[in-house]
Queue: 2 jobs
Job 1
Amino acid sequence: MPKMRAVQVPHAGGPLEIVERDIPEPGPGQVRLKVQACGVCHSDSLTKEGHMPGIMYPRVPGHEVVGIVDAVGAGVAGWKPGQQAGVGWNGGYCGYCDNCRRGDFFACTTATYITGVTSDGGYAEYMIARAEAVARLPEGLSPVEAAPLMCAGVTTYNCLRNTGARPGELVAVLGLGGLGHLGVQYAAKMGFKTVAIARGQDKAALATQLGASQYIDSRAQDPAKELQKLGGAKVILATVTAGDAMAAVVGGLGVRGTLMVVGAAMSMQIAPIQLLGGCTAIKGWYSGTSIDSQDTLAFSLQTGVRSMNEVFPLDRASEGYERMMSGDARFRVVLSVA
Ligand SMILES: NC(=O)c1ccc[n+]([C@@H]2O[C@H](COP(=O)([O-])OP(=O)(O)OC[C@H]3O[C@@H](n4cnc5c(N)ncnc54)[C@H](OP(=O)(O)O)[C@@H]3O)[C@@H](O)[C@H]2O)c1
Ligand SMILES: [Zn+2]
């Protein structure tokens, strides 16, 4: 049996360990990717620490995957060996639940297939993906450039394009990490008046480079008051991991503004009365389907949005993961696999 290198979590809370495994064979409806690059997303901590229900260990994390299709299972149409492809958090759709039969694939996937959570992900030389979860890669993006777009990219792009905000309106992006630094770029390219909010002054110049017209240092200023001085935000894209940081900006929403929550914070405390006067809303968002990923790749290529990456080899996945968790990465850690 041919072997591959993979980086797995042996049990919830366990270390990332490099192991040798059999190269998996694709089953019906599946393709095998020879992985080229995989981004390291903060959501990989959910797999590493066991913060999602029902994870079977050992588990290989990684859901920002770009690779070459090198084998296809029975019944797969539309994919053949040699094609370049990407897969994100959304690991596929069952096709038969009520939501799928209604055409709402977005609603199926949250409950069924999650790359790197319910099946092994891209911290490995090969991985298996369901054919419907795989996105086509356009020419013009390297694997390392494209990988972060499969989660950090599609999550922020797809969220922003579904908010109803119109060009010229005020959109704030809270947090400048892997997701946030892409969110600022997408918001600016979509024509929003874009404000970046992060902790400290060290990211101020970068925020401007990424397209923000204004930077708010949440340590030195009250971000809600600063947003109100600008007229109030139509949308605040909350990419941070901390609920208290999200709560601190709710007061910066304008009339009928929405706090779009993409950061997987475990709690957030706000006074509901704060929402009444301005009819404001708080809404969650998860990344998107493989078609949303294709749209993200196309938009990024067209407008020049790119992830700023720090590249680590697969053998140093654990170091790369710690770098991402430390908050010091500028801005995405990507594992270069082949
Ligand atoms: N909804 C989805 O589909 C989806 C998809 C991908 C990721 N996520 C989630 O989105 C979040 C961000 O992921 P990422 O990969 O971008 O993470 P990341 O690169 O590690 O960035 C983390 C961000 O959180 C901020 N942060 C951390 N601790 C904070 C604190 N105590 N107070 C205020 N801000 C704090 C940092 O803010 P500064 O910039 O101020 O340092 C940074 O911007 C994670 O929770 C992840 O699980 C959700
Ligand atoms: Zn992710």
Job 2
Amino acid sequence: MDYYITLSPGLEKISKNEIEFFGGKIKEVRENRGRIFFSGDLEIIPKINYLSRTVERLNILLHREEIPNISLEDVYDRVYNIDWTEWVKEEQSFAIRPLRAGEHSFTSIDIGRVAGEALIKSYQKDKNVRLKVNLDEPDVIVRVEVIFDELIVGIDTTGDVALDKRGYRVFNHPAHLNATIASSLIYLSEWKDDEVLLDPMCGSGTIPIEGALMKRNIPIGKFRENKYGFKFIDIFGYELLDKIKKEIAENKNIYKIIGLDRNQKYLDGAKENAKNAEVLDTINFICGDATKLHERFDSVDVIIANPPYGIRMGNKRVVKKLYNEFLSSVKKIMHGSSRLIVITAEDRMFRDAIIKNNFEVKDEFNVMFGGLMTRVFYLTL
Ligand SMILES: C[S@@+](CC[C@H](N)C(=O)[O-])C[C@H]1O[C@@H](n2cnc3c(N)ncnc32)[C@H](O)[C@@H]1O
């Protein structure tokens, strides 16, 4: 079967590794477009939805085609020609979730309307049954995307609540990091079991919590299940999910994870989140200053930071000073194989601080985070 996942654009190389780990055979990686096409068996559906840490949504791919000057008639045509009786049962309801990017003479609402009509007519032709539309709580979610000249039609196996909504968050930081991005940055760092992981501006604790879940092998689906009524579309039953759950071996090993922030209110929230994620005992939360790390720590192996940008929080002059003082302090606690990974939307200001503090840039790339372009820097001494 063919599938495609969606993820935060820019992090494709990390999600690609995860897909391959779950047994998917990569067909195409859309760099910086947040999409990966691949094939795999049915088991990959519960695997990705229950275990993946970097994917936002998994769809079964039904149709994909480049159509120059694509029109609404083309959309109707391609949707009508799919055999929907394989995917929707007579008594089930469905909803089209449309998406459009690029210049077109129609809107995404038009796509939804036309694709919905085509699906209903196609089903009537094959089964003589008129399917019900339910936009609020559909049994089957159909994704119809027109991205520039390309049409993609798929069945959403994840549901309306994407996988970055983990279900453990009870405290909402005003600028919290997306959990799939946090996990991707941890994978990027190649943090080893015996190494210290420090998030020096941890806010509500997303990075340390994702790190603890990863090392303790706690599946992200565990908390989604309770909170969002985790379910797949009804095409294979739940035996496969049960099988996957039985194979998971969580551990209670000790890992060296530190979350630091100067704001006690955020730290209290981070602890609430960690408690809800069952990893409070794995993380050491400390109230402190990221510009004075050298006064507290001798040596840290992996530092992952999501500092304030000045767009969402604080003002630019303060941010510039913070970036400089943070890099000057963090440098003193790094050793030859330490890695520092930073995600920020203030990339120019951060680059100035990198140059001033003489860091080696091993890698850097853009990541789209909720409509905001951010840059990830991978630094060593
Ligand atoms: C963008 S937020 C981090 C959000 C976090 N990644 C999360 O998911 O909730 C930046 C954080 O940096 C903290 N911060 C700013 N300056 C700091 C400093 N000098 N020392 C420690 N923390 C600082 C703020 O309190 C804020 O919580």
